[in-house]
Amino acid sequence: MKYDVVILTQEKYIAPNEPDWYSKQVIKEDALIVKALEEQNLKAIKKDWADPNFDWNDTKSVLFRTTWDYFDRFEEFKSWLNAIRHKTRLINSFELIEWNFDKKYLLDLQTKGIPIVDTHIIQQGSTMTLLDLQKSLNWPKMVLKPTVSGAGRHTYLIDTENISQHESVLAELLQNEDMMLQPFIENIKVHGEVSHIVIGGEYSHAILKLAQEGEFRVQDDFGGTTHLYAPSNEEKELAIAIVEACPTLPAYARVDLMWNDKMELILGEIELIEPELWFRNYPNASTQLAEFVKKNYF
Length: 298
Hints:
By secondary structure, this protein is α+β, with helices and mostly antiparallel strands.
């Protein structure tokens, strides 16, 4: 085979003519993991997952990193994934990716004792209205989003003043996909959300994400900012416990924790497919991942 590991990205991060600041960071992070793998004597290259000219039989494994267009091309991505799983080894595994696609996994983790943000699933085709759901759930403020989503896609903050404006939005989305409601956690506006990075079951580092004034989403797509963060032992232990509760051990995971209104730690999501890992802030983490890949996959 030509390669040991192909680092998966999307076309816009391969060789942009005029990369913006964020694209430069993505390219830098991908380069860090390529270098770290090469230092483990593994032949690595970066490729667009949708590259029609690449033969996936030419690599022993693929490492999912910055495939951030997959949720906008979900059916295409699933078809590609089902094809390459028989040609090469996936890191993380197909089992984990398939489980992590849909945020119903939160309910799986809850049955294992993991504290999560309360989550109510609205099945595709349902005719329930937001008003009916709000009365039933008794959540004055709610966050509505698809169960399969990323980067804040179709994520809305619902309250008593704007609920009627989103009824048609929900009805339209339910024609094509499952949706979910969660109570809005007010503390996120004050304390933000912390992304805890766990590599090979071992705690690595953390990043604090804060929403900009007047916004509730912490993603940088919506003006959110990131900051270095020193986690407590309680946070580290919960992040590791969440990773250990996954169907199998992930090579890497981003565990997003926040504090509820009682200042109790709860899980917002665990990202196992293409999480941002902030190697640019913690370059040694790329070495940690490369060492785990070499030891466990080669």
